[in-house]
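In response to a reviewer's request, we include the raw inputs and outputs for one of the modeled complexes. The two entities were modeled together in a single run.
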Amino acid sequence: MLITCPYCGPRDVIEFTYQGDGNRERPDPASQNFEAWNAYVYDRLNPAGDHNEIWQHSGGCRAHLRVVRNTLTHEISSVAFVRGDHGSAARRKAEDKP
Amino acid sequence: MSPRRTDTGGRIDRLKTIRFTFDGVAYTGHAGDTLASALLAKGVTLFGRSFKYHRPRGLLTAGVEEPNALVTVLKGEVREPNIPATMVEIHDGLVAISQNRFPSLAWDVNAVNQLGGKILSAGFYYKTFMGPVIGPLKGTRFWMFCEHFIRRAAGLGSAGSAKDPARYERMNAFCDVLVVGSGPAGLMAAKAAADQGARVMLADLEPRFGGSTNWSGETIDGAPAAEWARRTVTQLQGRDNVRLLPRTTVWGYYDNNTLAALERVSDHKEQPAKGEPRHRYWAIRARSVVLATGAFERPLVFPGNDRPGVMLAHAAERYVNEFGVLSGERIALFTNNDSAYRAAVALKKAGAAIVAIADVRSELSAEMRKLATEAEAEVLAGHAVVATEGGKAVSGIKVQRFDMLTGALTGDERSIHADCLLMSGGWSPTIHLASQAGAKAEWNAARQAFLPPKPTQQWPTQQWIGAGAFTGSFSTAEAIAEGRAAGLAAAGGTSTPAALPTVEALPGDPDPAPVFEIRAKGKSFVDFQHDVTAEDVRLAHREGFVSVEHLKRYTTLGMATDQGKSSNVPGLAIMAEALSKPIPEVGTTRFRPPFAPVSIGSLAAERFGDLKPERLTPMHDWHLANGATMYSAGLWYRPMIYGLSGETIEQAYVREAKATRESAGIVDVSTLGKIAVQGPDAATFLDRVYTNMFSTLAVGKARYGLMLREDGFAFDDGTTWRLGEQDFLMTTTTANAGKVMQHLEYFLDVIWPELKVHVTSVTDEWAGAAIGGPKARQILAACVTDTAVDNATLPFMGIVRGEIAGVPVMICRLSFSGEMAFEVYSGAGHGTHVWEALIETGKPFGLVTYGLEALGTMRIEKGHVTGAEIDGRTTARDLHLDWMLSKKKPFIGSAMMDREGLIASDRLELVGLIALDNRPLNGGAHIVEALDEANPHGSIGHITACCYSPALGKHIALALVEGGKARHGTRAHVSDPLRNRFGPVEIVSNHFYDPEGTRMHG
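The model returned the following structure tokens for the whole complex.
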């Protein structure tokens, strides 16, 4: 399986680490809603078809990618940085420097 | 009469003699021989004993599909079992032995199993060892007792236990076109694709390229076909865009045209070249793939078809044309198709007498009759072989008139004297790789074979293109045309008419008669390797097994190491007949990887042996030079002890730990994970990551921190140093460094992208030395410049910067040993320099170096936790670290850590144990309340770490025990039946030594 990292280009799946279902939403950190936390920690979608997944390019640029993969065919229809502005100039403004 | 070497012909080099042994007997062969051809040339026909009945077996084939002639190859102490003799290239010093026989191949006591054939039929295991044992053996383990002997009697070769010293490697490769198979189709495809400028890889499992050209006896472009192949290979060899891989079995076809192949690099050599691996595992990513994998000839199923001397027709043709070995002097043939006639002609030419050709078909073409005449063979049209005669070798056959339509045998049996019987039951394309790639095979009634479907170029169907016999086109002329077209298409070129090499071949109809079995009295084998007979298949049907998948499992048809390469279609045909259904309705099983057995070593490759990557600390060479015994921890190597001569491991660590507590000790801690956490939001981030507060930590101070996972369990611990307002240095345990880094990156990238924090792994940037003991401060004071190290300047958990021997260092006062201790960090390149300076300074103070064993001992005495206790199942409370759980802020894991099950009172909690019998304890031993050595049960926990404590003078341990704290002061027992260690222990607090911490606080 090849994943096309937006930063590094098409790379073999062995360079990536699967980081789970990309549909989970982390509850507000202060939330005591146990159901929501339980769903976040344990519930995973398991669709037969397109699945929204998080992969880290751990053997490359180490960015986390949002990958839409068809679980039946392994076809990957989209890959994007999870952090929308990853690698862009926006993150590295001069005033951010310590 | 017996098989023999011919005077001329074949690929072998008669001038080069090779010496080898088989079953302890010395033989000679020639360069180019396989073990099979060399032994056959010496008249050996008995190669093995069958799986279940221990029947004598000889060579059935000449290639990778061989089910019978499996041998074990010995290299020193290392044994590799179950290799087809047909795939072993002989070399000087080769040692091979036969399998599954006792005491010898010729005299095998288990051959009595043949007499019990009725009992040992399909489903024997399922039927026999069911239900309770009755009679006088009731209540005993009688079934288990039987199993021991049956398992020993039934089987293939046995694996060895010696460590394999061979080197294995893995190679990643990319190409535009991968061509699998180098027969006429594969060669043409490779050439056509290479001519288009494509990067081409050509793999063949044989040592010699050319496939059928090596033995077909045909002519291409006026030259012997083998000559044409050689010329084509030479052309390919000279090209930069072509890589040739002989001895390379492509065994797996995975997603996105990723293929796995095994190259047997040096099995055929007496000694591999320096650095040369034994096997190389290729992971090939190909834009497109040409499958030119040819076809396997099928045996016919009739009584006695497994007797040594019964062989596939093309195999005999191969032995004579490729190796110059005649498989017999008086040869009979039995066929349902035209291809056997070519073999008859070839064998006649080489000097054998062809005594008869029995053909199930009553109507034969004039061309075949002509070939038979050429072979001077008696043609028995409309006849079948109903028996073979002889003991461990064929001495004759019996034939009878046969009606193809009804399967009826009529007339008298006629005996024919022959020392070799060749059979041909038609051909099955080698569709394994296409099947792995998801293609559903289609039954072709004319060819009586499963053919690969025409590939659709749609996702997810792989981009393979078939050519030659693989597609059911069995003639060389077709293979050449299809090969060229496939090569062009695979390289993205357009097919243009071109002059193709011209082929001169004997005529022949590719379609066989639909006959698979001759039903006569006696054992007729379908699966030679697993000893499955036609009657077994019918028995399975009678017992209600309808699905082909069930049939496979019940009879074990096709489940041996050859994966049914020769037995699949005949087995299916017999099942179809029993079900009165056409073959395509019975279905075929899907082929899975691997196509042929793969060495485990090649899959492990660089993860073992001398290619395994290592991580060495900056002081590694110093440790080796100073007597350290190294210990591998993950990829790291760390000193275990610095033993003095004559010391045991225990004596060494006890001495090291004692000296540290009495004066001072120093240990290399460079392997600790180190992560720079920097940025305006670094403190906020650490507050969320750790259970305790870090935003309140003053610059120049360090704090011990604990991390949980999202599910509330403990994850990792370590100290984090605040070097500046926005600059932290986090340390992690050695084992979890990578995991913690990934954890931090995930939260920064996915959960909290708004935090302005950057994390950088700096593990390899820093060398670390921990120096501890009552005299540690004096030693530092004597060598550190540019800063004081007194209590006011460097309090507990304080950090100072200074210099040692002219090198800048960072010193943090923290303690793992429980003594007054300091961690001294310097740039990795200066590590040994600083280390040596510390040791030199420490000499007059009695400073010792200590290793992991003493480190572990002192931490057990202090009751500190490591990965053995933070094992993914323990919570902060279980480890008595609840004081670190901040109530002022949420943190990762805070929402889940108070779940009912995680705060229950019967959880396993960290405790200390003291052995009351004063004997060593074992890690992993269970703790029980009441001892019952005969029936160990009732575990209340287990030991996580243990040592002899020099400080206490006792054998102690840390353990996780139900109820934990509540049991302090009570007695329990260790129960370790595997190591036969039982005995009383006292449960105490995990803080054995200096629980108030007066020593480290000074």
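As requested, we also summarize the result in words. The longest strand of chain A covers residues 50-56. Residues 8 and 61 of chain A are 7 Å apart (CA to CA).
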